[in-house]
Design a protein that fits this description.
heterodimer; A: elongated; B: 313 residues; Rossmann fold; Alpha-Beta Plaits; 2 domains; 6-stranded mixed β-sheet; 4-stranded antiparallel β-sheet; globular
């Protein structure tokens, strides 16, 4: 158990070093800063008709940015070593490979998801202070709180698809393409369900379940990859 | 009785229909330096990957200091250092990042880590490279950095796959000296290569691999261990020298064999320097020297006998 935790901690540090050295660490700030700032500007200048609509708009902006960061960091965390054959060095180290990858995903996928949690929270909190209520305004297309929670499912799905695609293809670039395709498909199915008035809590839960299962599969498979 | 450093027992590996290794069996006693020779594609790298747990054998077993790496992977791998032939390095990382990650993974305590990283880098002459992005390093420096990473854990067994690949002659000689020193200090070495000189200089035993099968396991002649040791050189002359008493004229060489009126084999000491001295003396003696060529060592002859035949056929 101590070996597992030590490998987890070691690889959290390792991924942090990689993000710092590759100058990608600042990407983790995007969901936290750019989402709320972008949606605040939209609130102020687009005359958004209601607080709820402003929240929905802000959440979609924040989640969109978070998705891009999840895709990029996850694809590189899993696929870069495999593509460069740097795994020939790390695979021979005396630490559990699965815990190692889990530690790295904790930073690469967990960071942007945490960023969305914070950024989305800011959007929810700021919108009532920036938008004047219009009595004749139409209601939002979604309940903001439901959207906020549901978008976590989308992010988990994207992380899972990207991580598993990186393990299968051994390429960060191809994993990124797979993640983008998953995001587009997810948005299309979500929109169709919304128009059909069939969008329920089952959809984001299903996305999160699939994403979680794919992430676990990627971690397990990574542990038994042959070089 | 101490356990063998490495025991490879009837290991086979197939990739689809292709059999990369066929019942390979050998042992390394602690303190041995063993060369693992074979042509490209013979199965050398596959063997090393199996030993270091990167590839599972189709059949057979491996034990590292008595431990089965499949059952006690982390404990078994803690005692070995590995340098495989073609690992990449993530270009934006610094050498120090890589070595410190390895040190943490090997469980080296925080207070010892910096010193161990420094010592490993120092032994390979890459201290200045520790703070440079690895993408900016030449092939040779990157290779030395990777070898330093293999040394960070002060392993008892080093598995090296073509360690001198891409190194210039001076760096190659330096690296061989490092390996000899490590071996003298008690590190067991398994040196996979197709460069016979690496084996002659560093190893005291050699295994020959051909088409995935072990075809020879022999000691390396002690004389071959010294880069400045004796080497045989063939001198060809422009005219008949059969009446000339060569050994009397050429002080630095010992005539071994005449191969006709214009050709003689001599043994010289002092490596390349000795060879150069021999040429100078021959010219000074007024002999009509036409060509000088070093002869293949006994190991080379043995290699051709055991491994090369099939390739030639």
């Amino acid at each position: 158990m101590s070996g597992t935790l030590a490998a987890l901690a070691n690889n959290v540090t390792w991924e942090g070093t990689r993000l710092r050295r590759s100058r990608r660490a600042w990407l983790l700030l995007i969901p936290l800063a750019a989402g709320p700032i972008g949606s605040a500007i939209a609130d102020l200048y687009l005359r958004v008709p209601s607080v709820a609509t402003a929240q929905v708009l802000g959440l979609l902006i924040t989640a969109g940015l978070s998705s891009l960061v999840v895709l990029d960091l996850t694809a590189l965390a899993v696929g870069e070593d495999l593509a460069l054959r740097a795994h020939l060095l790390t695979f021979a180290l005396p630490e559990p490979r699965r815990s190692g990858l889990a530690g790295r995903l904790l930073v690469a996928a967990g960071g942007p998801v945490a960023g969305f949690a914070a950024g989305g929270g800011l959007v929810m909190a700021l919108a009532p202070r920036l938008v004047m209520m219009s009595p004749n305004s139409a209601g939002p297309i979604l309940v903001p709180l439901h959207l906020y929670l549901g978008l976590f499912g989308v992010l988990v799905l994207l992380a899972g698809v990207t991580a598993s695609a990186a393990v299968v293809t051994r390429s960060a670039a191809q994993a990124l393409v797979a993640g983008v395709l998953a995001g587009v498909t997810c948005a299309g199915v979500g929109s169709w369900l919304l128009l059909d008035r069939a969008l329920t809590v089952v959809f984001p839960i299903a996305l999160a379940a699939v994403g979680g299962a794919l992430t676990v599969w990627a971690v397990v498979r990574y542990g038994s990859l042959e070089s | 009785m101490p356990a063998d450093a490495l025991e490879v027992a009837a290991v086979s590996k197939s990739f689809g229909a292709r059999r990369a290794l066929q019942r390979v069996t050998f042992r390394l006693r602690p303190g041995e330096a063993v060369g693992y020779l074979g042509p490209n594609g013979a199965g050398k790298t596959t063997t090393l990957k199996i030993i270091s747990g990167l590839v599972a054998p189709s059949e057979g077993s491996v034990r590292l200091f008595g431990l089965d790496p499949r059952e006690e992977r982390d404990r078994a791998l803690r005692s070995i250092g590995v340098l495989l032939e073609t690992p990449g390095l993530v270009p934006y990382l610094r050498g120090r990042d890589v070595l410190e990650h390895v040190a943490r993974a090997r469980g080296i305590p925080r207070e010892e880590r910096a010193a161990r990283v420094q010592a490993a880098a120092s032994s390979l002459g890459v201290v200045r490279e520790l703070d440079r992005p690895v993408g900016s390093l030449s092939t040779g420096l990157a290779r030395r950095l990777l070898l330093a990473a293999a040394l960070v854990g002060e392993p008892r067994l080093l598995l090296l796959d073509e360690p001198t690949l891409g190194l210039d002659p001076v760096a190659r000689a330096d690296l061989r000296e490092v390996l000899r020193r490590l071996n003298r200090e008690g590190t067991t070495l398994l040196l996979s290569t197709h460069l016979l000189e690496d084996v002659e200089v560093v190893c005291n035993r050699v295994l020959f691999l051909r088409d995935g099968q072990l075809v020879g396991d022999e000691p390396v002649e002690a004389g071959g261990r010294d880069e400045d040791g004796p080497r045989r050189v063939c001198l060809r002359f422009a005219s008949d020298v059969s009446d000339v008493p060569l050994s009397a004229l050429i002080a630095s060489g010992r005539a071994v064999e005449r191969r006709g009126p214009r050709e003689v084999v001599l043994e010289v000491r002092g490596g390349l320097r000795g060879q150069a001295q021999l040429v100078a003396e021959t010219v000074r003696a007024g002999l009509p020297l036409a060509e000088v060529s070093p002869l293949a060592s006994d190991l080379a002859a043995r290699y051709l006998e055991l491994v090369g035949r099939e390739e030639e056929g």
